[in-house]
Specification:
about 425 residues; alpha/beta; FAD/NAD(P)-binding domain; 5-stranded parallel sheet; 12 helices; about 35% helix
Length: about 425
């Protein structure tokens, strides 16, 4: 369409159609809400992500209609975790999730996962606006007004909703924060990189964590037998590496650095062929952004972010969506049917209870992720960690358990687990 289409009204507008946004749109639409799901990029698209799906999320994804796809197409079951530092590799068993049937995590490329999830939202009845970007927001809880612009044409439109949910990436700030985010830059910034490789030699079912001088990373075998290699590197470390290799791309410099720094990476990539270009994003912004007094409800990375060394980004996205939707649906009636004063009280209660639940469930992961990231990025402490886990391999198993690999913050039954009626993959 051309020109402006104003006044489209919904019960909720969700900004961002990654795992958090698509999951929330599906749950609310299934409950009868009128939902608009706004995404600025076309799918499928590759995204910087470790692509590990912990076992705690499998019942949620099954409830969202992806159980068959995961069972058929995802990478091998993840049963071991390894710490790689320099020439050293120490491995241990990953803990299984409770219940037995879906006990082990898998890996699935984000180009596949995100596309399937947004299709489930559309199938549930959500209005998917893609590729559309939010160019302005006004109002507040009870009366949000959003200005949208199509990213592929001059088309514009305005949406109205009493509930607005931010589900965008942590480095994809909404209009009010973009200028500030663009101006922030420092040597300690963590920049994220990812590439996929065909023909890699990583042991199937192993989930290595890479401790690097000035960064950290991980590897996993995902769908199609592709290896996902992802890492975070400090900006000052990357600048120094690039200064010693003038004319080379950042991705090429990072790939060389990973193989020099970590013998496990060099072994895995021996004879492998990179599939597609290196992707980069950042800087990462670990921390808490959810607030109990916020008129804008936040899920996924928009709510808060743990250091990616935990591999819990997809987990926190899916599970935070479940926590928020449980609060939104607790009363049984949509927000559009309440008067202004009643809505304000309802919204404040939802925000307060959700923020408390989010902090209770996810703050321990943020603390653990920060501790592990700072330990891994320093050679002295990383070397000490290798000695500790060699003497006590169970420390790796416990760290995976403490990091949320086997415990789900959201109720799988709220996702329709065991009774899903999604799009047949």
């Amino acid at each position: 369409m051309n020109g402006a289409d104003t006044g489209a009204c919904f019960d909720a507008v969700i900004i961002g159609a990654g795992p958090a946004g698509s999951a929330a749109a599906t749950l609310l639409a299934r409950a009868g809400w009128a939902v608009a799901l706004v995404e600025k990029q076309r799918f499928p698209r590759r995204k910087v992500c470790g692509e590990c799906i912990a076992a705690s999320n499998l019942p949620l994804l099954e409830g969202l209609g992806l159980g068959g796809t995961l069972a058929r197409d995802a990478g091998p079951e993840l049963r071991t975790v390894a710490l790689m530092h320099g020439r050293h590799t120490v491995d241990a068993a990953l803990p299984p999730a409770a219940g037995g049937r879906l006990a082990w995590g898998r890996a699935l490329g984000r180009e596949t996962l995100d596309t399937l999830l947004v299709e489930q939202a559309r199938h549930a009845g959500a209005t998917v606006l893609q590729p559309w970007a939010v160019r302005g927001m006004a109002g507040g809880a009870g009366n949000w007004r959003l200005e949208l612009r199509c990213t592929r044409s001059p088309a514009a439109r305005e949406l109205q909703a009493p509930v607005a949910i931010a589900a965008h990436g942590s480095w994809e700030a909404l209009p009010s924060a973009r200028a500030q985010r663009r101006g922030e830059r420092g040597g300690a910034d963590l920049l994220a990189f990812k590439a996929n490789f065909a023909g890699a030699r990583l042991e199937p079912g192993c989930l290595p964590v890479l401790a690097l001088d000035g960064g950290y990373g991980g590897m996993v075998l995902a769908d199609g037998g592709l290896l996902t290699l992802a890492c975070c590197v400090r900006r000052d470390r990357l600048d120094a590496l690039r200064a010693r290799a003038p004319g080379r791309s950042a991705g090429a410099v990072v790939e060389d650095w990973l193989q020099r720094e970590c013998a496990g990476v060099a072994r895995a990539l021996q004879g492998a062929q990179r599939a597609g270009a290196w992707l980069a994003s950042g800087p990462l912004d670990p921390g808490v952004r959810v607030r109990s007094d916020d008129g804008l409800l936040r899920i996924g990375n928009a709510a808060g972010e743990a250091h990616p060394i935990l591999g819990e980004g997809i987990s926190m996205a899916l599970q935070s969506a479940g926590l928020l939707c449980a609060e939104l649906l607790a009363g049984g009636s949509g927000p559009a049917r309440a008067d202004a004063r009643a809505h304000a009280a309802w919204h404040a209660g939802v925000a307060r209870r959700y923020a408390a639940a989010w902090r209770r469930q996810f703050l321990p992961r943020l603390y653990l992720g920060a501790a592990l990231a700072h330990l891994a990025m320093r050679p002295a402490t990383a070397g000490l960690a290798v000695h500790l886990v060699r003497a006590w391999p169970g420390l790796l198993t416990r760290s995976a358990r403490w990091g949320g690999k086997v415990r789900c913050a959201a109720d799988p039954l709220a996702y329709g687990a065991g009774n899903a009626q999604g799009v047949a993959p």
